[in-house]
Write a structure and sequence with these properties.
The chain has about 260 residues and is mainly beta. It is built from two helices and 13 strands; from the N terminus they run βαββββββββαββββ.
Amino acid sequence: MRTSTTLALSFALASLALACGNGDSIVTGPSLSSGPSLSAFDGSPCKKESTVRSGSVQQALSADDVYAGLQCVRWAPVDGGFRVVLLNFEGACGAEWTGQVGANDGAVALRLVNPLCLVAACGWCIYDWTFDVRMGASPGGNAFDIVVDTCPGTQQPESESVVLPLDTQPTGELCRYANANALGWQAMALDTCGAAYMPCREEPGMCGTSAGAAPCDADLVCADGADAAAHVCQSACAADSDCTPKGVMKCEASVCRPAHPW
């Protein structure tokens, strides 16, 4: 579990009013208890089933290129509460996720549940999940528990926490590097090894099968990502102004890295 972070951001996300689900319709789901409750949930398909290659060697990196390799928690106000978007979260391949919301020792629990335990033998997938939650902002920020229950009653759910400053910053996002193993599965499926914020083409790892190929696409450098063993192709920089998206990435040790990891 990574350390929870409370952060007030100075920028607004105009696009957050849209659900993050590849065009899927938002459907209502059950709440788990009194207190915070779910008004709508939306989930994207497994992203490695896409046919769109992220990253480009012909033009400057776009924000979308960078976000493809980041895992973010975004939030914005909606009627009666807040929309929380979980961008690029890993989960079992072949699962049919449903969303639930409840209270857990003062935190808002965002639960991803695969009720029929459906799992395909195709490794990890990366998903976007959107929760519209009926709730208010608390002084000092609101704690959220993100719970992934792949097979209820058979496997222990995975859980991690984050604190969002809803009282002082009603719209914002926190980003960190996405899960390295899930990115490896996706990069192999979409042929994006070596692209922006995807795994480097090197051994060991799923992207180490291209003998003689450069570790990264042009103008990218191979550097440590979520940890020293997870190498990711990243933008070189001399100052924060060289990094995209502004405010999300910062220049650190000559590489553009997440400015506000959680």
